[in-house]
Design goal:
This protein has 180 residues and is of the alpha+beta class. The chain has 6 helices and 9 strands; from the N terminus they run E-H-E-H-E-E-H-E-H-E-H-E-E-H-E. It has a 5-stranded mixed beta sheet with strand order 5-3-4-6-9. The protein has a 4-stranded antiparallel beta sheet with strand order 1-2-8-7. InterPro entries: ProX/PRXD1, YbaK/aa-tRNA-synt-asso_dom_sf, YbaK/aa-tRNA-synth-assoc-dom.
């Protein structure tokens, strides 16, 4: 795997959803580094990518309430275990579960294994609430997929929080997860 600055020169064979991410980041003037790789749809597969990007890839979980009326994108360190019981009281929601692929595609235009904060650019009606574990915000960079799981990006955390999120009209809720 190689590390590249910015978007791929040749976009042949790349999905439209991936190209839209590069277009969005470039329009916002957000610098990023990128690596291309085989399908990486598990945290284990992301370990090698972490080394190339020199960043910890975020674990991104797409969650919903029992009624399937409230949806959440949770960003947390990839090496931290997720314990569902830690979250509901912090966000004022009842029991949470993983949302279906149907909602993931409808709201974020992403399929399982490629869930990423970048998908919020497709959530123009703000169906999805972004939750970020406080430990993610401590890092200088965030590693994420550009809405496909065959590339990964390294973006400054500050650029995600201060430029990207306001541009896509999303706020964030900071949560504290211990993984215990």
């Amino acid at each position: 795997m190689e590390l590249y600055k910015g978007r791929p020169e040749n976009t042949d064979g790349r999905q439209e959803r991936e190209i839209r991410v590069y277009d969005c980041l470039d329009k916002l003037g957000i610098e990023y580094e990128r690596t291309d790789h085989e399908h990486a749809d598990t945290m284990e597969a992301c370990n090698e990518i972490d080394e190339v990007l020199n960043v910890l890839i975020c674990k991104n979980l797409f969650l919903c309430n029992r009624q399937k009326t409230d949806f959440y994108l949770l960003m947390m360190p990839g090496n931290k275990p997720f314990k569902t019981k830690e979250l509901p009281a912090q966000i004022g929601s009842a029991r949470l579960s993983f949302a279906s692929e149907e909602f993931m595609v409808e709201y974020l235009d992403i399929h399982p294994g490629a869930v990423s904060v970048m998908g919020l650019m497709n959530d123009t009606d703000n169906h999805v609430r972004l939750l970020i574990d406080e430990d993610v915000l401590k890092g200088e960079y965030i590693g994420c997929h550009p809405c496909v799981n065959t590339s990964s990006l390294k973006i400054r955390t500050k650029d995600i929080v201060e430029t990207f999120l306001p541009a896509v009209h999303h706020d964030m809720t900071v949560v504290k997860l211990t993984g215990e």
